[in-house]
Amino acid sequence: MAKKKISIKDIARELGISITTVSFILNGKAKEKRISDEMTKKVQNYIKEVGYTPSYLAQSLRLGKSKVIVFMIEDISNQFFASIARMIEERAYKNGYKIIYCSTENDTEKAKELINTFKIRNVDGFIITPTPGLEPTIQELLEEDLALVLFDRWVPSINCSYVIVENEKSAFEATLHLIQNGCKKIAFLTVDSDQMQMKDRLQGYQKAVAENNLSSSVFKIKFHNIDEKEAYLKIIEFFRNNQGFDGVFFATNYLAFEGLQALDNLGIKVPEEVKVVSFDDHYFFNLYKPKISAIEQPLEIIAEKLMEAILHHLDSNESKHSFKKFILPNKLNIRESSSN
């Protein structure tokens, strides 16, 4: 037979004191309520003896705080998101908070369901990489005065806190780097998405080629999981049907993985025949032969600013409508794939 779970009521009855007294001691309010050290120690010793564990849901309802932050991103297995998750976990713990991770897989309905589930569980705040069409749900969170920070991408129509990077400027500089290294026909391979970070990267590329009187060539690929083969086959087809490129800019690292494999299978040499740059640096790019030039996002600073922004909303009711907006610079790591 399963052992009966001990309640506050059981503790109070056993020790001959009120339920309120037990509750104050459990919630760290003994001194505030002038409960003696002797009584406090008596309750704490009994709790250890019987192995009592509090109901965190009930506790959060009493205190109005769960000390839990939801980190909702596109794919927790992605190295970029996983690295940020690890860094904010450390910072959250130091500030007395725990992190719950979840992946939306860029699915808006899934994102909505997850948000509703966590709201019921009384979490304190959300750090979210928004999916397409999530604007009404984000607006609802703000109207309900929940702590909210957008991450990696922003929504122009909504006034809220966010932490993003200089996507347009970095894409412009990377494209200009290819041009300065002799590229005259540069392909831009990106995700077919209305998300602002992808639109900004595309705009940066287009601005650079236009300012240098070159033609743009953009190939958009439907969002997909890394293990899906369809995107790789489409990239192979694109390179076969569009020969003569001397430069390729991949808008994300997972497109670069597929694109480099496609170039290799087609016998197109990097950098002799085509120079390559990718957004989102990855340790794999230093292992690849030749080493791949890539735009590195400032992971440590992103994590710091995410926690600064969410704690700004969590620590004071007055900060609910005072927003933190960070746009951080990236670094272009120039390696063998784009050099002469």
TrEMBL record:
<dbReference type="GO" id="GO:0003700">
    <property type="term" value="F:DNA-binding transcription factor activity"/>
</dbReference>
<protein>
    <submittedName>
        <fullName>Transcriptional regulator, LacI family</fullName>
    </submittedName>
</protein>
<dbReference type="InterPro" id="IPR000843">
    <property type="entry name" value="HTH_LacI"/>
</dbReference>
<feature type="domain" description="HTH lacI-type">
    <location>
        <begin position="6"/>
        <end position="63"/>
    </location>
</feature>
<dbReference type="InterPro" id="IPR046335">
    <property type="entry name" value="LacI/GalR-like_sensor"/>
</dbReference>
<dbReference type="Pfam" id="PF13377">
    <property type="entry name" value="Peripla_BP_3"/>
</dbReference>
<dbReference type="Pfam" id="PF00356">
    <property type="entry name" value="LacI"/>
</dbReference>
<keyword id="KW-0804">Transcription</keyword>
<dbReference type="InterPro" id="IPR010982">
    <property type="entry name" value="Lambda_DNA-bd_dom_sf"/>
</dbReference>
<keyword id="KW-0238">DNA-binding</keyword>
<dbReference type="GO" id="GO:0000976">
    <property type="term" value="F:transcription cis-regulatory region binding"/>
</dbReference>
<keyword id="KW-0805">Transcription regulation</keyword>
<dbReference type="InterPro" id="IPR028082">
    <property type="entry name" value="Peripla_BP_I"/>
</dbReference>
